[in-house]
Write a structure and sequence with these properties.
The chain contains 10 helices and 7 strands. The chain is an alpha/beta fold.
């Protein structure tokens, strides 16, 4: 017997990184379902514009998810204005395409702080707010890069593997509490983040709306694994069962090793520049760490 879909009408849903891409499409989809949407984004103008376009009582606020005190204050502000949070979507994330050997400390730290540490903090906050009510849904955005490894994407893969592991552990911790956990694992999606990349042979890039639709479906009928497209699910489950040499051969056949190594650098330039400025709190931290070195050199 199929489960009765849950209504999202009147539910308070928070989406980080909701000013553009997958986050923006998800905010649209949630609003159509009648949810009260709070958009958090480091780009205040993008968050405010998105909220204005959505209407229906949506709010858009600036938040740097790497500033943990500010992230907590953002969630407090949402609850003051809209009520207790029913859905928290840890969507904010960035991706740098480079060989690990050439990647600088700032890029590595920025990805870890945005893609993983902020998701850990957001998940903690959601657990603390939802557990007393015995209900809620935490959605963490990972990637198929959280199930495999791709050259020139080492740090990103590390962060997304972390998000998958975090979500699996938290799901076990919350069993029986009434709080649901989902982890989203898209392949390539037609957003600015994937600009200039080359799709894997046989897998067409998804749209942000495809991912948003899959998330909404999982909020209405809860499930943990959300693969987009759904056909990636069997692939993700089959690959670990194959011997390593067979996995490598399949990867070469699908040309998955070329997805990032043959990325168009010029096409990615605008995105990479914006991503490099997406975590002011991290930039301040890196500056503080470098200051003693500069003083010693002087």
């Amino acid at each position: 017997m199929s489960k009765q879909p849950r209504s999202l009408s009147g539910r308070v849903a928070v989406v980080t990184g909701g000013g553009r891409g997958i986050g923006r499409a998800l905010c649209d989809a949630l609003t159509r379902e009648g949810a009260k949407v709070a958009i958090g984004d480091v780009d205040a103008a993008a968050a405010e514009t998105a909220a204005a376009e959505l209407g229906a009582g949506a709010i858009g606020l600036r938040v740097d998810v790497t500033d943990r005190a500010a992230f907590t204050a953002f969630l407090d502000a949402v609850e003051e204005r809209l009520g207790p949070i029913d859905v928290l979507v840890n969507n904010a994330g960035i991706m740098a395409v480079t060989s690990l050997e050439d990647e600088d400390d700032a890029s590595i730290t920025r990805q870890i702080e945005i893609n993983l540490h902020a998701v850990i903090h957001g998940t903690q906050e959601a657990m603390r707010r939802m557990r007393p009510r015995g209900s809620g849904h935490i959605v963490n955005l990972a990637s198929m890069a959280g199930k495999s490894g791709f050259p020139h994407l080492a740090t990103y893969c590390a962060t997304k593997h972390g998000v998958v592991g975090l979500s699996e552990a938290v799901r076990a911790e919350l069993r029986g509490t009434g709080i649901e956990v989902s982890v989203v694992m898209p392949g390539l999606v037609n957003t600015e983040l994937a600009a200039g990349t080359k799709p894997t042979r046989g897998f067409k890039p998804s749209s942000p709306e495809d991912v948003a639709g899959a998330i909404v479906a999982a909020l209405k009928v809860p499930r943990f694994d959300i693969f987009v497209p759904a056909s990636l699910g069997p692939t993700a489950r089959l690959l670990p069962l194959l011997p390593r040499r067979a996995q490598d051969a399949l990867g070469r056949l699908l040309k998955s090793d070329e997805v990032m190594t043959k990325a168009d650098r010029a096409a990615r330039a605008a995105y990479e520049a914006r991503a490099a400025a997406s975590a002011p709190a991290v930039d301040e931290l890196m500056a503080e760490l470098e200051e003693p070195e500069a003083t010693a050199a002087a």
